[in-house]
Amino acid sequence: MTYKNFTIETDANGIATITWDMADKSMNVIDLSVMEDLDRLVDDVANDDAIKGAVITSGKAAFSGGADLTMLEGLLQNFHKQKSKEPEAAARALFDGSRKLSLIYRKLETCGKPFVATLTGACMGGGTELALACHARVAADDDGFKMGLPEVKVGLFPGAGGTQRVMRMADGQQGMQFLLQGRTLRSKQAKSMKLVDEIVPPKKLVETAKKLLAAGVDPVKPWDKKGFKLPNGKVYSPAGFQFWPAANAIYRRETFDNYPGPRYLLHAVVEGLQLPMDLALQVESRYFAKVLQSPEASNMIRSLFVSMQELNKGARRPVDQRPNKIKKVGILGAGFMGAGIAYVSAQAGIDVVLIDRSQEAADKGKSYSEGLLAKAIHRGRSTEEQKEKLLSRINATTDYDALGDCDLVIEAVFEDREIKKTVTEQAEAAMKSRAIFASNTSTLPITSLAEASSRPKNFIGIHFFSPVDKMMLVEVIMGKKTSDRALAMALDYIKAIKKTPIVVNDSRGFYTSRVVMTYIREGLMMLADGVPAAMIENAGRMAGMPVGPLSLGDEVALDLAWKIVSATRKDLGVKYVEGPLDNILEEMVVKRERFGRKNGKGFYDYAGRDKKLWPGIPDVVGQPKPAESFNIDELQQRLLVMQALETARIFEEKCLTDVREADVGSILGFGFAPYSGGTLSYIDTMGTTEFVDLCKKFTRKWGPRFKPNKLLRDMAKTGDTFYGKFPPVVAVKDEAA
Ligand code: NAD
């Protein structure tokens, strides 16, 4: 009995220990070879009279990262190739292919011998589904333990029995939340949901699993016995009538029905719970195959799994640059951003010099980390010892000489050219000559900031998003003179702090800020068109944006938007076209001092955590027209089309050069409708010709800002897509999913 990815050893008591340890990967994942192995393993255990039961354990720190989604991508590609010629055969192949794992797990569940899974570290997706198919589960009592079914986050749902088993084991409400939100559970939560049976120290996992088997683990699952009762009772029952309509309402509230993954998940659960297990799994598989075929799932898998992984692994890193080990970073400005950057750096084990104008300000920046760590300790996610260790890495000071041995210095002082110039000069006087200097500016072109530098080759933009500890994206900006060495340093640093980088060329607002401003602007233009404010906000959320455009304007700060508009007007001179936007912002900021959330007054009034649309909006923009005069679908499209169009322009200007970065950056940076796969996937999915036609229609109806750019018009003529015309240049070899 030999397998590619597993070893099996049977002890004197007839308990087989099956160890999953993939030779060429740092994490166990489910790929075709693992499926082949598992299929055979179950037969071998079932047919070997010497084996009474089996423990499935991992030879690695974690149990499993889940299925390798590139496998599903391959299935889908075959489906799309075949479907025009032989639609039925194509659908059958997709259905059969995508349910193979589910059938193997069911075979394990019903083979007649008990299996116990021991779980450490991450247990995700298909790994969790394997554990649930086993007859008992022992989890490690360890801070690093997490169990989850995160498939909805990439547009899918758990399709290897996860939906059916969770809902037959856990309380209905907790189970639905776990499935629909794709959240991860710690060991105690998993136990209280009855998804694991025992929690023991990591070293005792296998021993405990064997003890369980020796004491007798039932090889027949409760749902395969007569008289099984669902934890929440039948779907068609008084309790069910209360529960399921509410579940559907919550689904719609959370997703606006934009996501086929959770939509079909609900179908699979409601229909599956009314059937015996084998049929229920068949229903789950049918909906899974349906979801797989949706453009939303393809786009989300591509952007949020494949592309994101490639970018994280350094797809844009210059290959000829030696890797940098970043030991120490300097941070200038210990304000909101500087303090956050200090925290994520120290968390990654990097020493930090945190500089501000006064010792008090520098200390305040350091205390931000203290606050975050205190919260983490309160939630059981950190310890006093870890806190002290992290804080000891941050040297809060006013002394620029402390920058002498930094590999990288990041400035996050006020958004003011002169101040940035002064600190650049001061820092460079103290830094070693090969160290890299980065600016965290949100809008000022890097090339012009680099003029203050005596070594512009070493000058680069590293643009973080707030709050730094939560936002996963970092936008790297290449100035005209920025060297590949500086880029490699920036990317190595971003990798060290475990964030996702995109690399863009210099321009005003770079990529993300520029597109975000068009979203806010479109919201203001709608106000000027007479659209009721609440309808604008709803249109934004219904389109899939995390917040409406007016809300985002308040968050970004209206006075900042006004500053940017004024600066652009000054730069463009006579070429600047005045519009209703200028009047609204001027009225809000200059005349009424409504700056947004930061002074508690913007398009919303803020009282504590609550916010309400400001009733005075009509005094600024005029009385709104009746909601019925506007088409809500068109308003949603306007908001998305405007952002996608701006992205296409930025792409044409070569500020963006990689389609993956446009898509990943738009979702992680500003939450662009994740179901679309990102700004360029949005255009590709609609079709370039249709997109251009829509832009032309909007130009006639709403103004020249919707005029499609030349690149788009040319692509529309030939029917090209962004991914077809500009395939990603570097494909990074996958090491571990
Ligand atoms: P902030 O006002 O909170 O912090 C700026 C800090 O710089 C203050 O603590 C100030 O005392 C310090 N400072 C000013 N002059 C200094 C000097 N000469 N030497 C040392 N320290 C000095 O501002 P912030 O929101 O943290 O923004 C900082 C930078 O980050 C700006 O360039 C901003 O555009 C950019 N940024 C901000 C955000 C955001 O959401 N706030 C997002 C991305 C980028």
UniProtKB/TrEMBL annotation:
Pathway: Lipid metabolism; fatty acid beta-oxidation. Residues 328-506 form the 3-hydroxyacyl-CoA dehydrogenase NAD binding domain. Pfam families: 3HCDH (PF00725), 3HCDH_N (PF02737), ECH_1 (PF00378). It comes from the Bacteria. It catalyses: a (3S)-3-hydroxyacyl-CoA + NAD(+) = a 3-oxoacyl-CoA + NADH + H(+). InterPro entries: 3-OHacyl-CoA_DH_NAD-bd, 3HC_DH_C, 6-PGluconate_DH-like_C_sf, ClpP/crotonase-like_dom_sf, Enoyl-CoA_hyd/isom_CS, Enoyl-CoA_hydra/iso, FA_oxidation_alpha_subunit, NAD(P)-bd_dom_sf. Keywords: Fatty acid metabolism, Lipid degradation, Lipid metabolism, Lyase, Multifunctional enzyme, NAD, Oxidoreductase. Its EC number is 4.2.1.17. It is an enzyme of class 4 (lyase). Residues 509-606 form the 3-hydroxyacyl-CoA dehydrogenase C-terminal domain. PANTHER family: TRIFUNCTIONAL ENZYME SUBUNIT ALPHA, TRIFUNCTIONAL ENZYME SUBUNIT ALPHA, MITOCHONDRIAL. In the central section; belongs to the 3-hydroxyacyl-CoA dehydrogenase family. This is enoyl-CoA hydratase.
